[in-house]
Amino acid sequence: MVVPLTTSRRAELGQQLPLWRMVPGRDALFRSLVFSDFSQAFGFMSRVALAAEAINHHPEWFNVWNRVEITLSTHDAGGLSERDVDLALRIDQLALESGVRSGI
Ligand SMILES: C[C@H](O)[C@H](O)[C@H]1CNC2=NC(N)=NC(=O)C2=N1
């Protein structure tokens, strides 16, 4: 069973994940990233895909050329769980290593 994030845990998210926003009307996190071209964006997506598969927690995402939009939520919990925070932190790391050009 996956446990939803507690209220106090949610209050810390702004500090821990400053580049992520809450999706309006949904218990989910969102970040948009811009890379220099499609190749850079897709390289980043490949790294995220491997990281996601390794922890069995998968992003909802959308890509157009150099832009990647990512939404994180735990379907098994009906909203945010610690798994989303873990994946978001990993994504932030991989974005830096993949030469992300701009954050949100
Ligand atoms: C059966 C499988 O373990 C589950 O469906 C996993 C797979 N990846 C997942 N990813 C996300 N984002 N949320 C989930 O609840 C989830 N559940």
UniProtKB/TrEMBL annotation:
MF GO annotations: 4-alpha-hydroxytetrahydrobiopterin dehydratase activity
GO biological process: tetrahydrobiopterin biosynthetic process
Lyase found in the keyword field: yes
Pfam family, one: Pterin_4a
Alphabetically ordered keywords of this record: Lyase
Reactions this protein catalyses: (4aS,6R)-4a-hydroxy-L-erythro-5,6,7,8-tetrahydrobiopterin = (6R)-L-erythro-6,7-dihydrobiopterin + H2O
The UniProt record lists the keyword Glycosyltransferase: no
Source species, domain of life: Bacteria
EC number, as in UniProt: 4.2.1.96
Name of the top EC class for this enzyme: lyase
Family: Belongs to the pterin-4-alpha-carbinolamine dehydratase family.
Protein name stated in the entry: Putative pterin-4-alpha-carbinolamine dehydratase
Organism listed in the record: Haematospirillum jordaniae
